[in-house]
Amino acid sequence: MVTHPVQQVVSSKGASITNEEELKNKLVTMTRIIVKERMFGPFGHISVRVPGKELFYITPGQFGNKQGIGVDDLVGVDFRGKKVSGANAPPRETVIHTVLHRRREDAAAIAHLHSYYATTLSICGMKFVPLHVNARPFVDNPPPVWVDADLIITEDEGEKLAKFAGNAPAVLMRGHGAVTIGKSIEELLLVTLTLEEESRRLIETASISTVMPLTADEFRHFKHRTLDLDRMAGKTWETCVAEL
Q1: Which letter, b or e, does each residue of 68-100 get, where b requires 16 or more Cβ atoms within 10 Å of its Cβ?
Q2: Considering all CA atoms of the chain, what is the largest pairwise distance in Å, rounded to the nearest integer?
Q3: What is the DSSP code string of 127-145?
Q4: Can you give the CATH number for the domain in which 99 is found?
Q5: 3-state SS of the chain: helix, strand, coil percent to 5?
Q6: What domain range is 40 assigned to?
Q7: Residues 6 or more apart from 119 whose CB is under 8 A from it?
Q8: How far apart are CA 60 and CA 75, in angstroms?
């Protein structure tokens, strides 16, 4: 088991946040953003790990009104997968979050969604390649495709998925959806939105022309001229919050 030090989560204004209530509020905000982007159906879920504790908060399973979700609707779960707080039931696939939070220090926030374009890309046999300069989260670790379309509900299945993911910030799940990972909620939002946008861009480009992906060498050049990931994540968060 990875031992997680107390981490600082950076707010959209650059201030450090270690307060549990602040993290829960951010989780609610992220949920509402994803609903607004039409990426959240009745079965997706998002979680955030509490720094310094073997604990995370997750959106409840099969919760109908995700746009109206509040802090009191969240479910507290420990690293053994045991519910420790909240009136609602955790999702059936909570083990995705349990294992990743436990195994990966960089997995401070996790989403499992059934978003349209990422799911479509998972079944069309196309390899994910970066097409836009904003796809930098995926240059070194493009999302692999997990071919088993079944639910992830046992500890063994969660361990296998986490091992398969390696250090990638996302996994496409064939005919199922995707898992996205961030070292903060802001980064999770960036990764989640970028995965869906790049999946759509790839599908649409391939339908009309030859795909011409950007190369790793090009991105190594870009990184000196564009925002780093933390700043990109902060800008994305600020923009999406302002549009709520």
Answers
A1: ebeeebbbbbbbeeeeeebebebbebbbbbbbb
A2: 52
A3: PP---SGGGGGGSSSPPPE
A4: 3.40.225.10
A5: 40, 15, 45
A6: 9-242
A7: 172, 173, 175, 176, 177, 178
A8: 6
Q: Does any domain span residue 3?
A: no
The b-or-e profile of 114-146 (16+ CB within 10 A means b, else e) is bbbbbbbbbeeeeebbbbeebbbbbbeebbebb
How many CB atoms within 10 Å of residue 233?
A: 24
Relative orientation angle of helices 155-165 and 94-103, to the nearest 10 degrees:
50
Cut 0.70: pTM above it: yes
Place of tokens 């009136």: 87
Instruction: Report how many domains make up the chain.
Output: 1
Q: What is the CA radius of gyration of the chain?
A: 17
pLDDT digits (tens, 9 = 90+) for 154-197: 999 999 999 999 999 999 999 999 999 999 999 999 999 999 99
The residues near 107 (Cβ < 8 Å, ≥ 6 apart) are 49, 100, 101, 181, 182, 183
Residue 4 is assigned to a structural domain of this protein: no
